[in-house]
Amino acid sequence: MPRIAGVSIPDNKRIAIAITYIYGVGNSLSKKILAETKIDPNKKAQDLTAEELNSLKEAIEKNNKIEGDLRRQVMVNIKRLKDIGTWRGARHTKKLPVRGQRTKTNTRTVRGNVRKTMGSGRKPAAAPT
Fold first, then answer.
1. pTM of the model
2. Are residues 57 and 78 in the same domain?
């Protein structure tokens, strides 16, 4: 398993898909990086040579903000929104949807599967008599 930027890349996947396991590298960025390093996107990760792997590491780490740096930047941005008291910052603080989604329904994943109405809870199993 090759390691790039502290992340183990899966061996049996195409390299175009495998490098998307790195936080901050998506589909379009992976295609751009592979075109820049002249590596075939259909090649499996286990079939990469050492020099291809090194050029891939260089291209990813040199030009892009990934993994820890990117996570830190996102956290700082959210903290800034909270500190200056914006609406988005308040929504982050309350762990509610930030980008204008409705909250009467469809926010169970954000709210932690809270069921607030009478009929929406699960009934206990009936006890046999």
1. 0.70
2. no
